[in-house]
């Protein structure tokens, strides 16, 4: 008899099928094998004591500060450690408990994650001269050839932008932005490329978005997350998908000492608010983007990637865009032109933590890397 230890990332469902476990058995065992670590902020101390006892009673646990049992402080933070089955049981138990535990029960139910294995690569094309990566800047027929090449390499979405949103960038008028993107939008329409891939406009200009959406574009990539009601109305009218991205401040100043008490919870609250607004305007096709590099320090960017799976609780696809960004340079000094390897490391990690749309400058390399990452999740 021999045995060996499996990785915690082993594709369990495929392994159980290989062992010829019944479908009913697979369903039960999958719940027991996925461990959740859930950080709970500002939990009333009596609630913490109740939750700990309930967790222990079903084989889970709750890590709390040592003075919690004495109730010397009114609120504490806690760490819940539970598999999917225990999480479900605990959410049922807490529905009848006081001290805010009824509301917590609802959140625990939402946080029973499912890993996403499919991915789409969103290729980047910029029609401006101030985008931070020169390799993404194209115009005229060269832009058309680059779009066709990205589609051939496996991009299922092409994101076109006419204004840079890099840290320190300054905006331009709607008319100037339109003069940059209109020739490319027209070429895309003339060559019927919207039949080969989906097209997204990286803009928050109603004028530019109306131009693109009326010519076959299907996605609004809005770094302001529908701050402008006119953009929300337009997206709803065209039944477009909308990327809601979190950004702290404005591009011109967003990297000047951004501060958060808890970046994951603040981004979560932002998404909740903007999703509600999108729905109020009749927008149903929503994509969430935590906004790597948009008003975040290196540590905050890393925290968002480490806990990216948290945002699956909203039930919408997650987009990540860390391509060649300065966080790589902050980890290991690297010029923009040589940040492909670091980009792939960040994006594969984001994919493993729930991202299903990867916005990237280098399409071929991303399709290859993500195809391998997917195989590692599905082949035993």
Automatic annotation (TrEMBL):
The protein's annotated pathway: Cofactor biosynthesis; tetrahydrofolate biosynthesis; 7,8-dihydrofolate from 2-amino-4-hydroxy-6-hydroxymethyl-7,8-dihydropteridine diphosphate and 4-aminobenzoate: step 1/2
Catalytic activity, as annotated: (7,8-dihydropterin-6-yl)methyl diphosphate + 4-aminobenzoate = 7,8-dihydropteroate + diphosphate
Cofactor dependency: Mg(2+)
GO cellular component, one term: cytosol
Keywords: Folate biosynthesis, Magnesium, Metal-binding, Transferase
Residue span(s) of domain Pterin-binding: 119-371
Pfam families with a match to the protein in the record: Pterin_bind
Keyword Acetylation: no
GO MF entries: dihydropteroate synthase activity; metal ion binding
Name listed for the protein in its UniProt record: dihydropteroate synthase
The keyword Metal-binding is assigned to this record: yes
SUPFAM superfamilies xrefs: Dihydropteroate synthetase-like
Species whose genome carries this gene: Sulfurospirillum deleyianum (strain ATCC 51133 / DSM 6946 / 5175)
Class of the enzyme per the UniProt entry, highest EC level: transferase
InterPro entries in the cross-refs: DHP_synth-like (IPR045031), DHP_synth_dom (IPR006390), Dihydropteroate_synth-like_sf (IPR011005), Dihydropteroate_synthase_prd (IPR016227), Pterin-binding_dom (IPR000489)
GO biological process, one term: folic acid biosynthetic process
Lineage per the UniProt record: Bacteria, Pseudomonadati, Campylobacterota, Epsilonproteobacteria, Campylobacterales
E.C. designation(s): 2.5.1.15
Organism domain of life: Bacteria
């Amino acid at each position: 008899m021999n045995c060996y230890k499996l990785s915690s990332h082993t594709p369990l469902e495929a392994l159980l099928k290989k062992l010829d476990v019944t479908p009913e058995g697979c369903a039960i065992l999958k719940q027991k094998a996925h461990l959740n670590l859930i950080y709970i902020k500002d939990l009333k101390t009596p609630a913490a004591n109740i939750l700990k006892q309930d967790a222990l009673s079903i084989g889970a646990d709750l890590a709390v500060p040592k003075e919690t049992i004495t109730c010397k402080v009114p609120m504490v933070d806690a760490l819940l450690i539970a598999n999917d089955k225990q999480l479900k049981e605990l959410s049922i138990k807490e529905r009848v408990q006081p001290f805010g535990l009824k509301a917590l029960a609802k959140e625990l139910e939402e946080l029973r994650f499912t890993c996403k294995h499919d991915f789409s690569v969103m290729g980047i094309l910029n029609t401006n001269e101030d985008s931070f990566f020169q390799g993404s800047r194209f115009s005229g027929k060269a832009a058309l050839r680059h779009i066709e090449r990205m589609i051939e390499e496996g991009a299922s979405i092409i994101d076109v932008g006419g204004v840079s949103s890099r840290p320190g960038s300054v905006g331009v008028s709607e008319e100037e932005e339109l003069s940059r993107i209109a020739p490319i939008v027209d070429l895309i329409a003339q060559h019927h490329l919207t039949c080969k891939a989906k097209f997204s406009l990286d803009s928050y200009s109603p004028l530019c978005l109306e131009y693109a959406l009326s010519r076959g574009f299907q996605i609004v990539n809005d770094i302001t997350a529908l701050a402008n009601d006119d953009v929300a109305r337009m997206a709803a009218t065209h039944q477009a998908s909308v990327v809601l991205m979190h950004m702290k401040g404005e591009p011109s100043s967003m990297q000047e000492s951004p501060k958060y008490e808890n970046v994951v919870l603040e981004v979560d609250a932002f998404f909740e608010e903007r999703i509600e607004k999108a729905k109020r305007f009749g927008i149903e096709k929503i994509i969430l983007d935590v906004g790597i590099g948009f008003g975040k320090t290196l540590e905050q960017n890393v925290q968002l990637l480490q806990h990216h799976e948290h945002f699956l609780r909203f039930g919408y696809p997650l987009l990540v865009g860390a391509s060649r960004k300065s966080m790589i340079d902050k980890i290991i000094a690297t010029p923009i032109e040589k940040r492909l390897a670091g980009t792939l490391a960040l994006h594969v990690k984001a994919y493993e933590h729930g991202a299903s749309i990867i916005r990237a400058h280098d399409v071929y390399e991303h399709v290859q890397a993500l195809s391998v990452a997917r195989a590692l999740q599905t082949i035993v």
